[in-house]
Amino acid sequence: MYGIDFGTSNTVVTVLEGGKSRVLDLGEGGVIPSLLYFERERRPSVGHEAMADYGEALQRWRGTADLYSRFRFFQAIKLALKDEHFDGTRIFGERVKVEALAAIFLREVKRRADETTGRPSGRLVLGRPVTLSHNAETDARLEERFRQAAILAGFEEVDFVFEPVAASVNVAGRTGDTVLVFDFGGGTLDISLGRTMSDGLEVLANVGADLGGYLLNEDLSRARIIRHFGAGGRFYTMTGKELEMPSWITHQVASFYALPLADLARTRATIKDLLYDARRVDKDKLRGLLDFLDRNLAFELFQKIDDTKIALSAKDRANIAYEVPPYIRFEEAISRGDFEELIAPRVAAARALVGQALEKAGLEAGDVTRVVRVGGSSRVPAFARMLEETFPGRVEEGEVFTSIAAGLLEAHERGLGRTRKQAVGA
Questions:
Q1: What angle do CA 163, 165, 169 make, to 5 degrees?
Q2: SS (H, E, C) 12-51
Q3: Do the bridges between strand 178-184 and strand 370-374 make them parallel or antiparallel, or are there none, so unpaired?
Q4: Which of 130, 170, 252, 345 places its Cα 20 to 30 Å from the Cα of 232?
Q5: Which long-range contacts (CB under 8 A, 24 or more apart) does 415-423 make?
Q6: What pLDDT, in 10s, does the model give residues 301-326?
Q7: 376, 402 contact by CB (below 8 A)
């Protein structure tokens, strides 16, 4: 049986050995980036291999238009899987359902795990966010998507454990401790409150929200980047009417997971119409935007922004330098203060979710013995500081990328798995 933390940014696989979980290396050091690359007439690649293939393809076809017809590159597939309004995309003219897209990634992960252990397994414990939807029927339907993706990947039996519950089992300490797990990943913020008992873990409350590191990147892009692609600009029509640049065009640049999945025909057509018809418009920005879309550059820009966000956790200032030659070239200096002002509403939402978890458990902040931060986004100083203000002297960092996976199988063994009878957020 495998435990898989299929994360928005990274994926980790574990097995139980001697009653303890072991993270499988799978050739990538145990943490596989949740990335998927397609090219005609070759097998798909995942993880670091997919990232390398993407970089090589950009170089190989430099100067070639419409790279979407040559290769496709997907990130944050999990966000697409949990998006009730998205059901699939076209890859080289063929419609692929979102479950099948996720299954291609999971199938390769399973193949590597089977090869590593030497004993193929059809049983899986899969982590899932606490809340896929606040509507119980929709939540169940979206969970079924995850199940179907795993079945299409070759698993025969699929069980679920809430991700922060798995992390709680992994970090559980002394009997009597009341532990809050703050699981802040790429796509969601999930919080679990539990009490360590002599015979296991008593789960007191689970809450979750669609708040993750991807949103912080998109906030930064909308505030400082998309204006370089024409956002906020104005133009005149052939009849002399002044209009504002359609926001839906440039906002797509900030939707890093959704953009590669989108049907870009309408966007391209609108940009081309503006280039032909509009007057007093910055056509270089529009030409750069068109090239950005045609050359499949969403992940390249995402990396630049993500690197800057990570750098601001250690430094007071960082730069985002990017270009789409010969049309767009910019460098944005971002201070930590700028970034923290920008994400202040997200910090407030996280604080409110902590309060919701405490209220649901019937506890006060002072009742919590330990607070454990897991997930890459939990390292953002503004969120760590919020937790320290709420729980002074009791906040610690767990195994940021592996805590969930390390607890999945033990949580399942202890009967803490998600069942079909549980209510949303139970």
A1: 120
A2: EEEEEECCEEEECCCCCCCCEECEEEEECCCCCEEHHHHH
A3: parallel
A4: 345
A5: 416/161, 416/165, 416/169, 416/201, 416/203, 417/125, 417/159, 417/160, 417/161, 418/128, 418/143, 418/159, 418/160, 418/161, 418/162, 420/140, 423/136
A6: 999 999 999 999 999 999 999 999 99
A7: no
Cα atoms found within 13 Å of the Cα of residue 17, Cβ hemisphere only: 6
Strand order in the sheet with 71-75: 45-46, 35-39, 71-75
Dump pLDDT digits (tens) for 255-285: 888 888 887 888 888 888 888 877 777 889 9
pLDDT (tens digit per residue) in 177-221: 999 999 999 999 999 999 998 888 999 999 999 999 999 999 999
If pLDDT is split at 50, 70 and 90, which confidence band does 9 have? very high
Convert the pLDDT of each residue in 348-376 to its tens digit. Answer: 999 999 999 999 999 999 999 999 999 99
Name the residue among 242, 187, 184, 243 with its Cα closest to residue 210: 187
Tell me what percent of the residues of the chain surpass a pLDDT of 90: 75
Q: Residue 181 and residue 377: Cα distance in Å, rounded?
A: 13
Q: What is the pLDDT of residue 41?
A: 86
Distances in whole angstroms, Cα of residue 269 to Cα of each of 177, 302, 396, 421: 59, 24, 51, 48
End-to-end CA distance of the chain: 25
Residue that is written with structure tokens 């005609």 in the block = 40
420 — pLDDT class (breaks 50, 70, 90): very low
